[in-house]
Every structure is written in structure tokens, then in C-alpha cells.
Amino acid sequence: MDVNVIKKQIRVDTLAEQVNGEVIGDGSILIDSLNGIEAAVPGQITFLVKATQVDIIAKTEASAVIVPMAIEDNSGNGKTLIRVKNPYLASAIIHNLLLEKPFYAKGVHSSAYVGANCTIGKEVTIEPLAVLGDNVVIGERVYVGSGAYVGDNSVLGDDTIIRPNVTIESETVIGCRVTVHAGTVIGSDGYGYAPDELGRHIKRPQVGTVRIDDDVEIGANCCVDRAAYGLTWIMSGTKIDNQVQIAHNVIIGQNCLVVSQSGISGSSTLGKNVILGGKSAIKGHVHLGDRTMVAGRSGVTRDLPTGAVVGGFPAIPIDKWTKAASTYGKLPELRAEIRRLRKEMTELQQQIVGKE
Amino acid sequence: MDVNVIKKQIRVDTLAEQVNGEVIGDGSILIDSLNGIEAAVPGQITFLVKATQVDIIAKTEASAVIVPMAIEDNSGNGKTLIRVKNPYLASAIIHNLLLEKPFYAKGVHSSAYVGANCTIGKEVTIEPLAVLGDNVVIGERVYVGSGAYVGDNSVLGDDTIIRPNVTIESETVIGCRVTVHAGTVIGSDGYGYAPDELGRHIKRPQVGTVRIDDDVEIGANCCVDRAAYGLTWIMSGTKIDNQVQIAHNVIIGQNCLVVSQSGISGSSTLGKNVILGGKSAIKGHVHLGDRTMVAGRSGVTRDLPTGAVVGGFPAIPIDKWTKAASTYGKLPELRAEIRRLRKEMTELQQQIVGKE
Amino acid sequence: MDVNVIKKQIRVDTLAEQVNGEVIGDGSILIDSLNGIEAAVPGQITFLVKATQVDIIAKTEASAVIVPMAIEDNSGNGKTLIRVKNPYLASAIIHNLLLEKPFYAKGVHSSAYVGANCTIGKEVTIEPLAVLGDNVVIGERVYVGSGAYVGDNSVLGDDTIIRPNVTIESETVIGCRVTVHAGTVIGSDGYGYAPDELGRHIKRPQVGTVRIDDDVEIGANCCVDRAAYGLTWIMSGTKIDNQVQIAHNVIIGQNCLVVSQSGISGSSTLGKNVILGGKSAIKGHVHLGDRTMVAGRSGVTRDLPTGAVVGGFPAIPIDKWTKAASTYGKLPELRAEIRRLRKEMTELQQQIVGKE
């Protein structure tokens, strides 16, 4: 029996209840999965974000469509609709509901290595060739993938998922419902040296740890360094994309989004709901207030107040940066015009002197 | 018997035939390897790309030299030459020929883990502590390195090489003659969330897969995310450098080059033979036409037509960007000159008013 | 017996001797560890970098404080002080001293795989599920973490530490006291192809190797490619942060610092004590002289002389770049002023013509 192929079937009206949606049409239709509007087939539900694209509904083969409130009836398409305030959000909630399944505990595989004095939940999956160090604590319904390493004295909370080949160095504390994708390294040494008189770099021991709170998701091949002293800390609900670098003693507040290939330098702190665009860079020892937004490829070099929206390097207010960036390509023309003005200015000056 | 130390020996004229080259000198000389022109020793072949550097030929110890057509005889150096249109290409073809050896099948190592219902070619090497999930299909002459993980239902075509500690998540389909270097992650979840009213980010399930076609090479520590729905797709012949990020639903056409530390955001598509310079960034949902070239460190924010060559951020035509970039450092001077012009303008205006 | 929990205790005056420091107060106090000034507790030593913050000393609970020479007595705080020229350096040296402990050799774990003809030191720790290929040479007091892979014919010098899930490809030579953090890949193929007439990319075999000298530290998820021919070489004392990309045939001199997410393109060379800021990019085939400094997020496109300090892209002298960068946001204003000047110039010209 393959546990993966048993699909649930849920009535449209039951799904609608979960998202405070209003059903138009036959609420008794059974749905087994969600798909994009063009690829969807009968038995599936799909969603439409923009009411202006209402005509697509008639073309999809989906059995039901989640739609924005602006779409008031299904007379043009005959489909079963679920009207909601925010179809993008509602479709995520419904999709998760359709995919939800009981945790399938395979236990600890005989080829996995488990160190001394570990405390492991009753229902877990520790895959082949995974490694737990000594004194590791593993909660219920935890998944640790093949080749993943969890160092001594680390903790994984309930329902946490560690994908293959992840490295979690010692003393790391990870909360519940956290997902860490493959290849990511958590708890590696921070980058700190003191130069001596001969120009050699003496390592500053990195004796702090990393704490990752509930509901955090960290992408593939990221790095989260342990603190020099104290904590590197990622608070609950924050979602980190692939290949992000988080240096020692960084603190990231709740519900932040940190997009791919960004880097946050040592001891910088982010408030709540901060968004860092892809490939952005944050200098060390700065603070980004709640709800700040940093455009992709930007570099922030100083503190940002609550709600600031910035771009460029050094980052400036986004509208200023957008205008400057669009003028950039005209720099050579501007320079030529300045030269012409100078020439004409000199001519005028001479003419006037000539007249006097 | 060490299979690695048996070197082939191939006659110069045999090598020349493989690259439509013309031999000048003794075509019967035996060659066992290829080396750079300064390090080469007798028994080796080397190559010269620029005819202007013809004098180096007399100094190399190599037994033969691949040269451009502009070099018409060997009277100045007495070496055996192979004249070809494109020495850079010919040397690559000859080098591969000299290194070619039969696949050495070690079989599946006893310490590797193989899941249920796998279909594995007769001649393969699955190294110690590699992991194959359930229902994995492995073609002939496939190499899977130590610590590599191939998830459930994934497929590796003939002659494909998976280096150590690579993670290939479930449902990934990889073609023939593909090489994936160490530490790379293929099929991790795409980065997609829907914010709710409380500012929390609800995960959008990533239920698509990744397809990688024949003759693709992917560097070390890259990330290729699985699609939200449908496919993330890298077409045949594309070569990807280290630490590249490829987001969900990206499609990369045939024979593209994606240089190190570049990032391609979700749902963007590249045509054929596109070149992305190192550290370049492509915004989501844009299309880069065939043969577009993006300079290193650039950021593309909109669609690019066939053959476009761009640089900067936001990327503009490369010549425009080059001129603007060379003017950038003069911005403070230009500003000072503008202030002087303003001052002088005001003076002139006053003088003229004074005269009236 | 847990070897990790036995703390040394060292007298303050003994510590002071190691850093040529002068003790003020009771030199017989016993110290067991070092901590930041705010978190320190009795029995710990801490340090103060700036004499202007002297008031903090009275508030710390630390038993002793390393201070700069400008602080001449402890009358204001009654603490035991160690006066030194460079507290930042002295605290690093003392911290290492307090943490120093004998190497704890666990031997080669039974689940690790060791290939044929390896030469392994008497006192080593090869952790569970680590892999050594054939003919690997491992010095004394070497640590190889779980899931790490050391390819055929590679060498690890004495006291070298390879963290979990590191991949060291074949023929790599690593010196003594080197640390390589988790997920890093050393010796993967360089990125080299020759295009043929059909736009396909023919791989140029990468037959060189990597050499890493003594006292190098390499962060997590880095890539160091093997040379096309010859060597990719990182010289002694160089410290590399996380997610750095080092391409084939790069040579990095002694005691360089390469900060996170930087990339160095093929065949470029760095002198001694070069500093590359985070996310900086170095073009291929350029040379950076000794003690050059490259600001974060910069791109170097040409050779730099000894001691150059640069920023921007293309990188220019740092002061020039700083001024230009601070003018950038004013580009739209400058453009508007230029237009006004043009308009007024034309008016003036007409006025003068009108008078003639």
C-alpha cells in the first residue's frame, strides 16, 4: 500500500467553510486536489486572482474555482465558484488542506547513527544514513532526511522537517513546524578574526549558538552562523529562500521574508515583517525597523525606520532610487550637454565683455 | 591494477582527423595527454589560440601543437602542428578523446541504501553511503557518489554523473550524460507564500517537479527548485556554474551558459544560447530571447528581445551602460560644474538686466 | 566522563603574560572562560576595545577585563584589569587559550567507509558515515565529520578539521590546521567550455587540482574549483567566509580575508593580505596587489596596484566612489537643473542677438 497515492476527497462547501467563502453552484462536488487554472482537470479546484480575467473560468476543466468577491455569479461559465476576499490566500489554505495527511512514522532506520543519550519522540522518521550526535532531543513527528547531521545537544521541536544533507551543528535549538531544506548549514562558526602585528588573522572563538523559532522555513544551501557569544536568532514565521547567508548574532524578527542570495552581516537586526529582495545585502550592526522593504540587489548601510522602502546601494528611498536608476543611462548625454552649456556660457560671457 | 593510470597513446594524425585538422610535420608521433603550453612535456599535445603568439611554440616541450590556420608552417619551431579553424574548440575535442575511458562499473556498494522497487542499469557505480529512495530508475553507466541522495520516483538517464552529497528530491527526471556537481540541490520547494491578515505567510504547496535534459552540467552548491505546479525545466546542452539559484517554474532553453552566483527568479524563461554573466539577476516572469547576453553583476527587470546584449541594473543596452558606468565616477565633478554654470548664468542674467 | 565540560582555570597574571599585558589588581584570580562584557559572570574575563566606554567596566560582573592602555587604573571600578595595546587581539588570544584542550581521538568509526591504501594518523576522529576514497593520506589529530567525503589521492595535514557533509574531490592537497566548514565543495570541475559551430558547448576537461596551505579557514557552502591545468591555490593564513566561489586557477596569497558571497573568476590572483568585502566580484585574469581592499558589493574589472582601496562597479578609488554614490540619488534633480540651464541659455542668447 502506497500511502502517497490515497487522495482525499473533500466537498466544495467544506472547503469554502475553511476560508469563509461563499459557494455559488453545486457545493456537493468532490475535490481531490488543486492545480493551476490551465492545467486543472475535473475533480480539481483552481483559483483566479484577478476578476478582470473572468473569461478564463469558462475554459478551465477544473470542477471548481476560487474567485475574488468582484465575481458575483457563475452565469457566464456554469462552474462551481467559491467567492473569497483573497483568492491567493484562500487557495493556499485549501491546497494545504487537500494535501494534509497523517505523519507516516518510519522510526529510526537501522543504518542511521544515533549518539549517546538522545531523546527521540515515539513517532519519528529518521532516514537511512542520517546522523544524530550525543544528547540530541527530537520531538514528535519529526523527519530527518538521509545524510542530514544533527550535532550534539541540538533540539528539534515537534513536526519539524530536516531535508537530506542538511548540517545542524551542535547546540542548535529549532522549534516546531520548522522546515530546513537540503544542503543548508546551521550553526557553523561566525566569521571573526583579530589581525596581529604580522597581518595574520587570529580566530575569535565562536561560542554562541543558533535559535530558530516555530514555523520558520529555510531554503536550500543557506548558511546560518552561530553567534560569537549569545544567539543568532530567527523568530517565528520567518521564511528564508535558497542560498541566503545569515551571519553571527543576526536577529530576524517574526514573519520576515528573505529572498534568495541575500546576505545579512554580523549583529544586524530585523524587526517584524521585513522583506529583503533577492541578492540584497545588509551591512553589519544596523537595524531594519518593522515592515521595512528592501528592493532586490540593494545594499543597506544604515538603520532604517519602521516601514521604510528602499533600493540601490547605498540604499535610498525607493522612489528616489527608481528615478535615479532610470536617469543613469543618460549620464553620458548629460555630461555632453554640460560641456555644451559651458562652451556657450563662455561665448556669451565674451560677447558681453566685448560689448562693454 | 589501477584503471586510472593506463594512459592511451594516440597518433597525431589520428587526433587531427577528429578535428578536421591538417598535420604539418610527423603525424606518427604518439600523444598520451594534453597540457597548457608552458607546462607541457614530451608525449603531450598543447594548443595555441592566437597566431600572434607563434614564438611560444619553439619554447614548449610538447610533442605537438594545435594551431590556428594563420600559422602556415613549422619552419620556425620544428614541431608537429595540427592546423585548425578553431584551436580552442579542437583542443577541447582532442583533450576529451585522450581522456576517454570505458566506464568502470563498481556496482551498488553494500553500504549504499536502495529503496523499494528501484530499476537499476546493469553497469553502474553507486558509491558507499549513497541513498536511492523508492521507485528510482537508474540508467546504464550511471555514477552516484557517496552521500548523494536520489529521492523517490526520480530518474537518472544513461551516463549521468551525480557527484557526492548532491540532493535530488523526489520526482526529478534527469536525462543522459548529465553531470551534477557536489552539494547541489535539485527539486527543493519553490519559495511561495500567501500573506494572511495577521502578516503571517501561508505556504503555497510546491507540487510540481524538475526536468533536466541531456548533456546539461550543473556546478557545485547550486539550487534548482521544483515547480509550484508543472515543471522547472533545464533544456539540453545548458551549462550552469557553481552557486546558481534557479527558482520554481523557470525554463532555460538549450545550450545556455549561466555563470556562477547568478539567480533566476520564478517563472522566468530563457531562450536558446543565452549567456548570463556571473552574479547576474533575472527578475521573475520575464523572457530573455535567444542569444541574449547579460553582463556580469547585471539585473534584468524586463523582457529582452532576441540577441539583446545588456548590462547594469536595471539592465540597459551594454554600450549605453558601459559609457554611463565610465561617467559615474565623475558625478561629483558634473554636479560642481552644474552649480558653477548656475552661478554664472545668474550673473549674466543680472548683467543683461542691468544693461537694459 | 564528558570531556567537554571540564573547564580549565587559569590565573589572570598567567593570561596577561601571553599577551604582554600589565595586570592592575589581583592577578591571582582564576578565570575559566571569556564572554561579552554584558553577559559575563564571575569567573569569566571580558574585554573593552574603546577606552571611552570605561564606565561599562564597573557594571560588568566579569572577574577581570582586558582594556586598552589608555585606561590607567582600576580606581573607578575595582576590577582586575589587563592593560594591552590591542584588546581586540589580546581577547582573541586569551579566549583561544581558555578553550584549548587536548585532541580527543575517537578513531575511525565502524560505519565510516575507508578506501584502499589509505594512510591514517594514529590519533584521528573519522566520524560515523564519513567516506575516504583510495590512497587518502590523513595526518595526526585530524577530524573528518559525518557525511564528509575525501576523494582518492587527497591529503589532509595534521590538526585539520573537515566538518560534516563537506566534499573534497580527488587529488586535493590540504595543509595543517585547516578548517573547512560544512557543505563546502573543494575540487569540483572548473567552468570551461568551447562553443562549436552549432552553438553547443564542448567541455574543456579540468585536469588540475586544488592546494590549500596551512592555517586556512573556509566557511560553509563555499566552492573551490580544481584547476583546468595546474593549481587552484589558497595560501597560508587566508580566511574565507561562507558561500564564496573560487574559480579554477585562482591563486589567493597569504592572510587574505574573503567575505561572504564574494566570487573570484578564473585565473585571477590575489597578493598578500587582500580584503574582499561581502558580495564582491573579481573578473577573470586580473591581479590584485598586496593589501588591496575591495568594498562590499564591488566589482573589480582590472588589475589593482599594491594597497589600492576601491569600490563600485567597475571599481574605482573608494573616495571617488563614495562621493559618486552619494550624488547618485540627485541625478534626477541634476537633470532637471541642466534642462533649466539650457532653457535660460537659449533665452539669453536670443536676448543678446535681439540687442545686436
Descriptive account of the structure:
- The structure is a homotrimer of 356-residue chains.
- With 356 residues, the first copy, chain A, is α/β, with parallel strands linked by helices.
- A twelve-stranded mixed sheet of chain A has the order 8-11-14-17-20-25-28-31-34-37-39-40, covered by helices on one side. Chain A has a ten-stranded parallel sheet with strand order 9-12-15-18-21-26-29-32-35-38, with no helix packed on it.
- In chain A, β22 and β23 form a beta hairpin.
- The termini of chain A are far apart.
- Chains in contact: A-B, A-C, B-C.
- At the A-B interface, β4, α2, α3 and α4 of A face β22, β23, α3 and α4 of B.
How do the helices and strands line up, and which of them pair or pack?
Three copies of one chain form a homotrimer.
Chain A: E1 10-11, H1 12-18, E2 22-24, E3 30-31, E4 33-34, E5 44-47, E6 64-68, E7 80-84, H2 87-99, E8 107-108, E9 113-114, E10 119-120, E11 125-126, E12 131-132, E13 137-138, E14 143-144, E15 149-150, E16 155-156, E17 161-162, E18 167-168, E19 173-174, E20 179-180, E21 185-188, E22 193-195, E23 201-203, E24 209-212, E25 217-218, E26 223-225, E27 231-234, E28 239-240, E29 245-246, E30 251-252, E31 257-258, E32 263-264, E33 269-270, E34 275-276, E35 281-282, E36 287-288, E37 293-294, E38 299-300, E39 309-311, E40 316-317, H3 318-328, H4 331-355
Parallel strand pairs in A: 4-5, 5-6, 6-7, 8-11, 9-12, 10-13, 11-14, 12-15, 13-16, 14-17, 15-18, 16-19, 17-20, 18-21, 19-24, 20-25, 21-26, 24-27, 25-28, 26-29, 27-30, 28-31, 29-32, 30-33, 31-34, 32-35, 33-36, 34-37, 35-38, 37-39
Antiparallel strand pairs in A: 1-3, 2-7, 22-23, 39-40
